[in-house]
Specification:
The protein is an alpha+beta fold. It folds into 2 domains: 65 residues, Transferase Creatine Kinase, Chain A, domain 1 (Orthogonal Bundle); 251 residues, Creatine Kinase, Chain A, domain 2 (2-Layer Sandwich). It is built from 11 helices and 10 strands. The strands form 2 sheets. An 8-stranded antiparallel sheet has the order 2-3-4-5-1-8-10-9. Strands 6-7 form a two-stranded antiparallel ribbon. A hairpin with a 3-residue loop joins strand 6 and strand 7. The protein starts with 12 loop residues before the first helix and ends with a helix. The protein binds adenosine-5'-diphosphate (ADP) and arginine (ARG).
Length: 342
């Protein structure tokens, strides 16, 4: 592979940090699973509008291709090579009340964590047989849930298009045909090995074999961040009793995209801010200050509709799970105060 040519206006962290020198240093390297720099950068090379543009193939990718991953991790999470990642997923340390008790602004709250299994490569290079094995191990583990979290596993293969589309529209299921995932190798053999587990109320869900092997999700209507967090903590604790997650001392939970390393947690609200969103500079100033990201109402790379936005924590590495939830809480409180004052 030759050094890729990026257009002048390319804004991805890939084109910022993949210098000719870094490329020369990495171009002949391989991880034990055979992951190469060509595979790592393909998504950002094919999608020049990427924000990040790189994916990992296994835990070792983050070491073998560190000259590219490290500066991207530093810029995205503010996490230095010398920093330590410390986890705290203890609900007792999250003390907060609902920031919008009358549900005037917050429509719904969702917190997810990404996880991958210790014994397999990441989805970018996993084989079909390994992916099917992940699906089996995880869906078997989920069968032992009881009470509020008990539910059923629905494989994507064989699901009717109507049901699939309704689940996507209602924000429960991952979308199909994402071009960033496609170029990263994450859509190979679709829909084999993919599926969704959920309880009856759809307040606890697990996506299997999308961008990460597991996305464990807790969500509900309204703004009770703590209730959503507590449910997720309980569920994650339970799942890790039966499957071993991929983890590193330095980077926490290992995920296919470097933006999800560490806690792999994205805590979000769907929030209606019709006045503030007329002044996007002020809106962005508040979200930047609070380490928050703005997404559209149908998730990443989607547009906002009717003044409703998806607001979530941006940092996930070098901060704890409790910190991620507080980033969301503090930011949302400020956004609501400003909206009220306008
Ligand atoms: P992820 O959270 O897994 O990184 P996306 O940004 O694609 O991925 O979001 C996945 C789905 O979750 C989308 O349908 C999105 O609308 C939905 N979603 C995210 N946050 C919320 C929320 N607070 N309430 C309801 N749905 C949400
Ligand atoms: N690869 C995509 C980009 O660079 C997504 C990056 C972050 N989001 C994610 N789902 N991993 O824009």
């Amino acid at each position: 592979m030759n050094f890729p040519n990026f257009p002048k206006d390319c804004k991805s962290l890939l084109c910022k940090y993949l210098t000719k020198e870094v490329f020369e240093e990495l171009k002949n390297k391989k991880t034990p699973n055979g992951f190469t720099i060509e595979k790592a950068i393909n998504s950002g090379v094919k999608n020049i509008d990427s924000g990040i543009g790189v994916y990992a193939g296994d835990k070792e990718s983050y070491d073998v291709f560190a000259p590219l991953f490290d500066p991207i991790i530093k810029e995205y999470h503010g996490f230095e090579k010398s920093d330590k990642h410390i986890s705290n997923f203890n609900p007792k340390d999250l003390k907060m009340t609902n920031p919008d008790p009358s549900s005037q602004y917050i429509l719904s709250t969702r917190i997810r964590v990404g996880r991958n299994l210790a014994d397999f490569p990441l989805g970018t290079i996993i084989s079909k047989e390994q992916r099917d094995e992940v699906e089996k191990r995880v869906s078997d583990a989920l069968k032992s849930f009881d009470g509020e979290l008990s539910g059923s596993y629905y494989p994507l293969k064989g699901m009717s298009k109507d049901i699939q589309e309704q689940l996507i529209k209602d924000h429960f299921l991952f979308k199909e045909g994402d071009r960033f995932l496609e170029a990263a190798g994450l859509n190979r053999d679709w829909p084999e090995g993919r599926g969704i587990y959920h309880n009856d109320d759809k307040t606890f869900l697990v996506w299997i074999n999308e961008e990460d092997e597991l996305r464990i999700i807790s969500m509900q209507q309204g703004g009770d961040i703590k209730e959503v967090f507590d449910r997720l903590a309980k569920a994650v604790d339970f799942i890790q009793n039966s499957v071993k997650f991929m983890k590193s001392e330095h980077l926490g939970y290992i995920t296919s995209c470097p933006t999800n390393l560490g806690t792999a947690m994205r805590a979000s609200v769907h929030i209606k801010l019709p006045k503030l969103s007329r002044d996007m500079d002020l809106f962005k100033k508040i979200t930047d200050k609070n380490h928050l990201q703005i997404r559209g109402v149908h998730g990443e790379h989607s547009e906002s509709e009717g003044g409703i936005f998806d607001i979530s924590n941006k940092r996930r590495l070098g901060v704890s799970e409790v910190d991620c939830a507080y980033d969301l809480y503090n930011g949302v409180k400020e956004l609501i105060e400003v909206e009220k004052s306008l």
